[in-house]
Amino acid sequence: MKIAIIGAGNLGVSIATGILHSGGATSMYLTRRNLEALKGFEEYGRVTLTRDNREAVAGSDILIFAVQPLHFASILESVKDLLHDNHVLISTITGFSLSAMEAIVGPDRYLIRAMPNTAIAVGRSMTCLASNEAGKKRVELAAAIFNRMGHTLMIPEQQMQAATVICASGIAFWMRLIRATTQGAIQLGFDAKEARELAMHTCGGAAELLIQSGHHPEEEIDRVTTPMGCTIEGLNEMEHQGLSSSLIKGIVASYDKITQISKG
Ligand SMILES: NC(=O)C1=CN([C@@H]2O[C@H](COP(=O)(O)OP(=O)(O)OC[C@H]3O[C@@H](n4cnc5c(N)ncnc54)[C@H](O)[C@@H]3O)[C@@H](O)[C@H]2O)C=CC1
Ligand SMILES: O=C(O)[C@@H]1CCC=N1
Fold first, then answer.
1. Residue among 6, 11, 124, 128 to mutate when testing ligand 1 (max atoms within 8 A of CB)
2. Does 11 sit in the ligand 2 pocket, CB within 6 Å?
3. Which of 12, 52, 99, 242 has its CA 20 to 30 A from that of 176?
4. Domains of the chain
5. For the residues of the chain, what is the DSSP string, one character each?
6. Is any atom of ligand 2 closer than 6 Å to the C-beta of 171?
């Protein structure tokens, strides 16, 4: 598979790292304006670094776009004459619809929107996918690419903004919870490094328990909460302080913002 990542910034580099570690490409182009920031990728023989998006598009079949929304339309315009029938265009760009892409490159192109998160770098992204009508023929290919680097779910395009909040922004939300747990552990006497280790691995274990068992979180909570014990004491205090409510309110605020951004 010949893959180009157009706009190798925070997300693009994470995707490139995930693809390289999962052996998911026969060749890869990475484009961005400041190539200095991509140092290290040169070590991989099959990676070409360039500022020239046209060179990357001409040399690849799968095009993954990871630029900021305001740059996307002009980049599509600048490469559309190079597109051929086999090109699959995958956009990770927030708030840029499939119909807006079709308006530039035409409705017959295979167009897919993907919403991964930065855990793609370590093969653990939750990636949501949606396609235009033509793209339905290539959506399994896109899912195969992203399944090598985590878990995928096909969704209607209307849910893409909600998926952005839960999965892409969600990484930051979970990081903050891990940091807060770390701070609590330090207050209880662990040094900073140990505290972080305890928080990260407990968080990873909780998610893995649910993934592997298929249980509802409350079922697992019930196994931990000894009557009159310390877990229920802590949990109830967290709820009195608004833990669930503040998370839900944050998610809704994030969604309101993305809706506002998408309206332009
Ligand atoms: N950062 C994240 O966790 C996620 C970001 N997204 C979306 O992915 C897109 C990229 O986000 P980030 O990686 O955070 O942004 P970023 O700003 O870190 O990366 C964008 C890259 O595109 C490059 N660029 C700008 N103009 C270019 C051009 N003409 N040709 C080639 N490269 C060019 C920039 O130099 C930069 O390195 C955004 O649309 C964002 O909404 C989606 C999911 C998660
Ligand atoms: O914060 C943002 O707006 C972008 C979209 C999801 C992750 N980063």
1. 11
2. no
3. 12
4. 2-155 (3.40.50.720), 164-262 (1.10.3730.10)
5. -EEEEES-SHHHHHHHHHHHHTT--SEEEEE-S-GGGGTTGGGSTTEEEES-HHHHHHT-SEEEE-S-HHHHHHHHHHHGGG--TT-EEEE--TT--HHHHHHHH-TTSEEEEEE--GGGGGT-EEEEEEE-TGGGGGHHHHHHHHHTTEEEEE--GGGHHHHIIIIIIHHHHHHHHHHHHHHHHHHTT--HHHHHHHHHHHHHHHHHHHHHH---HHHHHHHH--TTSHHHHHHHHHHHTTHHHHHHHHHHHHHHHHHHHHT-
6. no
